[in-house]
Amino acid sequence: MSNVKIATAPCSWGVWYADGTPSGTPYEVFLDQAAEAGYKALELGPDGYLPTDEGKLREELQKRSLEVCAGTACYQFDTGASFADFRPRVEALCKRLTALGAKYLVTMDESDVGLYSEKKRDMGSDVWNAFLTRIRDMGEYTQNEFGIEVVYHPHIKTMIEYEDEIIRLMDFTGLNLCFDTGHHAYDNGNGKPGDPSAPNFMRRFADRIAYLHFKQVDGAVYQKVMEEHIDSDTAFDINVMCDLPDGIIDFAEIKKAMDDIGFSGIAVVESDMPRATTAQAFASAKRNLNYLRDIHIIE
Questions:
Q1: How many angstroms separate the first and last alpha carbons of the chain?
Q2: How far is Cα 269 from Cα 37, in angstroms, rounded to an integer?
Q3: HEC profile of 151-197
Q4: What is the pLDDT at residue 287?
Q5: 38, 209, 259 from 205: Cα distances, Å
């Protein structure tokens, strides 16, 4: 059986960047609504969106009975000579996480891979090895210095999105995954109801699934994206990601996969709603949590 702690994140309120864009949701509204919806934990989201002063952040969390389950690190890993170029930001973030009792750092790539990831086709082994070395060194640093585990998040339109790339990263770096069901299905699935790509991968690499993001793909929008060759940025703007009950991923099957592999850890409901109003985001957050109760991922 699985044992899951459910959390949420600012991106479910349309916050992708430290300034609160694209939705413009004030951090106080996010925290208020996350707590009122019934969540007890959250990821920090874009570094700088929530207060970076430890005392101020602790105060904001405590008065809403919230805790931090992880930090979020998004860097252009194709830049810089080595991990040393990223270390000051990672160090500051890890000090904050340590003070708040969090043990995970969800890490994503923001390298320039082109609008359709086409630039990766021309990248040689030297580019890949340098990229992967920076991530491996980051994981070793956070673990050795702070006891914080980097969990790598494969992501649409980045260096690591397709299954062969995910396997390459795991083999080279030794890192475990923050496995995002929606990103995986978008890039590796068949776009049809009941798409098995996410639960199949979870079972295949059970010992590498350390942390989960629950995300859903709207089948009709996905079909439009594929037929019209729409780029992923535009796909998100037209809501290719939807509420958990509504898309191609069967979360009852995700529940079975979690039980099969004995998953014990954190699962973050992460809806990616860049154009949602705060009212829409709040309604979605409550609906998704209730759905997870209905299918007994949580009680």
A1: 13
A2: 12
A3: EECCCCCCCCCCHHHHHHHHHHHCCEEEEEHHHHHHHHCCCCCCCCH
A4: 98
A5: 31, 7, 14
For position 273, what pLDDT does the model report? 86
Residue type, 18: A
More confident residue, 272 or 109: 109
Sign, CA torsion 101/258/198/253: negative
- C-alpha span between 197 and 216 (Å, rounded): 12
The pLDDT tens digits for 139-185 are 999 999 999 999 999 999 999 999 999 999 999 999 999 999 999 99
Pairing mode of beta strands 3-8, 264-269: parallel
Cα-based angle 244, 250, 255 (whole degrees, multiple of 5)? 90
User: What does the block give as tokens for 61?
Assistant: 């969390």
**Burial (Cβ within 10 Å: 0-12, 13-18, ≥19) of residue 23:** buried
What's the pTM?
Answer: 0.97
Measured in residues, the chain has a length of 299
Q: What is the CA radius of gyration of the chain?
A: 18
